[in-house]
Amino acid sequence: MKATFVSPLGPLTLTEEGGQITALSWHSAPHDPTPLLAEAIAQLQAYFDRRLTRFDLPLHFGTGLNAQVRRAMVAIPLGETRTYGDLSRALGAPAQAIGQACGANPIPILIPCHRILGAQGLGGFSAPGGVETKVWLLKHEGAASLLI
Q: Options 1.10.260.40, 1.10.3470.10, 1.10.10.10, 3.40.50.1980; which CATH number does 64-147 get?
């Protein structure tokens, strides 16, 4: 099942499988909302309206290191960031593997991979708009002072 939400960043399509959100992508899709997808859209609207600081949705985290990295990203409070090195030390995995796990995140925004920065800069962002979208999200969350 899929449902599309029109955000300030363009259309975002959420996918639900097995009672969990499994993907968020930057495009429109046929709109077939379930109660979970309707709740996810309501929470995204509240996030973009600055009325929500933490999502409360059943998310599919995957397995192995990807799941560990995704859970670590969800634990980062709104307005804060971590580096790839921070997660590397916390999870006992190479920073490059952390970066790969961030880039493979299928549920951006809800699993906030945009809150992970490089030691000397922003790092990458795989969503349309790339680093500009990452900067927009960080500014939206009040983390702009961290970008200077």
A: 1.10.10.10
